[in-house]
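Sorry to interrupt, but I need a hand with the structure work. Go ahead and set the record down below:
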Amino acid sequence: MLFAGLGFIAIADADELFQARLTGDQEVPAVAADTTGRFEILVNKDATAGEYTLRVNSGVRVTQSHFHCGPAGVNGPVIVFLAGFRGEGWDVDGKWVSNATITDANVILTTTSCGATLSQILEAARNGNVYVNVHSVAHPGGVARGQLEPASAN
């Protein structure tokens, strides 16, 4: 698997956990698929780095995954790559990515209001404006999606 630009460092001073539960019915439009997932990121105290795990269940020919900027029910632009890209996809049933790290260097600058740093993206997530999306060959727009939220809200 390709994790372009992602480092692998331990988050020793972890402070906050964010999670997303991914399902096809959260896609826009909704997708009838068995694929589900769970994303967790443990963020350090100054919100400059986060170590994450992405699990995908019943994933058939999964191609890639991202953070997108957008509230529930609205599609938005990619703002951070999480996994992929592989045109033919992978069959995934369990951990797809683990112990990968996101920093400010992984943020893709867009004209949206989600921000230019990991800290700003996490603030947008607290306000319901960031989602995790998993894409597949059969559903290139997304096969499973979930809003990223602080763990206490999930």
